[in-house]
Amino acid sequence: MSWDIEKIKADVAADVASASSLDALESVRLKYLGKKGLVQEMYGGLSEASADEKKLIGKGANDIKTLAEGLIADRKIAISAQSKRADAIDVTIPGAQRGVGTQHLINQTVIEICDVFERMGFVIQRGPEIETEFHNFSALNIPLDHPSRDSFDTFYLDQEDPQVKGHYLLLRSHTSPGQIRVMKQHKPPMAVIIPGKVYRPDAVDASHSFMFHQIEGLLVDKNVTFADLKGLLTAFCKKYFGDDVTMRFRPHFFPFTEPSAEVDIQSNIFKGRAGKWLEILGCGMVHPKVFEAAGYPAGEYTGFAFGMGVERIAMLKHGIGDIRTFVENDIRFLRQY
Ligand code: DAH
Q1: pLDDT of the chain along its 337 residues, tens only?
Q2: Quick count: other Cβ atoms within 10 Å of Cβ 275?
Q3: Which is the closest atom of ligand 1 to the Cα of 176?
Q4: Half-sphere exposure of 290 (CA within 13 A, CB side)
Q5: 283 alpha carbon – ligand 1 mean position (Å)
Q6: Would the CB of 178 count as within 6 Å of ligand 1?
Q7: CA–centroid distance, residue 115 to ligand 1 (Å)
Q8: On the CB side of 216, how many CA atoms lie within 13 Å of its CA?
Q9: How far is the CA of 216 from the centre of ligand 1 (A)?
Q10: Considering the entire predicted model, what is its pTM?
């Protein structure tokens, strides 16, 4: 039998090149190099061949074997590399889903409010949530017999204040003690906002919670007036609630400011509350007793302070009816914002 060696070599090359998987390549290998493959068949015919043919066919079979082995080995590497690459970028495999979180509405509100004040030159400060009676009450001119000091209105720890015998540490019931801490640490002029959590043992209902957030503001300098306070809070309300907002400063009492006021606002952006006055914050001129507690010389400085409840403002702005929804961790509620 005669063999067209060159044609077989070309076939080997074409077959190997067109094998696109390892299985297909194995079939090609068997076709040429297997026990019943072409190369074996060529060797098998040698005994019947003439001496000249033997030489030619023997050499041809050897050449084909070497060629096939080489090409198959190379192709194997290429197919494996290709399938690894394909694995790495298989765009049809469903992606590993990572739950993307959102910022809690309360934090969003804190940041938005602080932003407005920061753009007006205020600096953010923070105070501790575990406070002393001095910072939370006495320094703020809240007398010993004031009802807010009662254990029904403040969470006390059963740990004594290391500095004052008979006084207990407590969870701050407002952010106002931050005023004292900032004033003890810095000299005027200063303009700070102090956001944070506060705690009160209130029975929980739609508008009360034992933990909520406040943002305190304090500005101290020389010759600060109530007009400055009004101007600043008006600018804040317009920026935060929109130009349509109307405000009123309603006289009020706070021990740490004199005179004091509460600010109510009205706006038709508050769904279902149009035409109603809604209280959003307390404010006033810093009381001389507060400066005294901070260690400032009498009569040297003037300033104003204000404090607002974050939950209340978020509820107004977004038409939320129940304060408990903030802490129920219902993702359907949280995702809306
Ligand atoms: N601390 C007050 C409260 O929790 C809010 C407040 C009122 C803060 C008047 C102030 C202020 O700084 O001047 O009800």
Answers
A1: 678 999 999 999 999 999 999 999 999 999 999 999 999 999 888 888 888 888 888 898 999 999 999 999 999 998 888 877 766 777 888 888 888 888 999 999 999 999 999 999 999 999 999 999 999 999 999 999 998 888 889 999 999 999 999 999 999 999 999 999 999 999 999 999 999 999 999 889 999 999 999 999 999 999 999 999 999 999 999 999 999 999 999 999 999 999 999 999 998 888 777 789 999 999 999 999 999 999 999 999 999 999 999 999 999 999 999 999 999 999 899 989 9
A2: 8
A3: 1
A4: 29
A5: 6
A6: no
A7: 20
A8: 23
A9: 7
A10: 0.72
